[in-house]
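Thread: "does anyone have the structure for this chain?"

Original post by V.I.:
We have the sequence but no experimental structure in hand. Need at least a predicted one for the grant figures.
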Amino acid sequence: MPERFSWVVDGVIAGMERPGLLGSREDDLEFLRGEGIEVIINLEEREHASDYEGFIVKHIPVNDFKAPGFEDFEEFIAFVNGQLARRRRIAVHCYAGMGRTNLMLACFLIHHMRIDPGTALEAVKMRRPFHLVTWQQEEALRDYFFMIRDSLVLLE
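Reply from O.Q.:
Generated one for you, tokens below.
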């Protein structure tokens, strides 16, 4: 099992470090297959699609410790929604699985649970104790939220 793997929404979407970073890549990928995961979203600067044979791979490059742009959040959500419509389980990773991964998972929660950025980040922290989201990344998530909030109906 990848050391930093955890479900943020059980059986739907998970976060982790790059497969093979802390152990055998093949063991990590076999674990993902065993969990029923068919989709890997790579947030690293470099693409690794050829390393993930048998998976649907989406590359959304975000520089390490940097904030993604509005388009990155939108691309992520559009892709995730498309995969969920096909009932595919998803694993999201960056290099260490602590910053960009958790940020995008919080973005997912904002859309699918209709919660604000602070609540979403706290929810991710509860499921993923390995957490290293920078203030710039948090600010980008808040900015994104304020741009889309009128299209969301938030839960009280």
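V.I.: this helps a lot. Residues 70-85 form the longest helix (16 residues).
O.Q.: and The chain has a mean pLDDT of 94.
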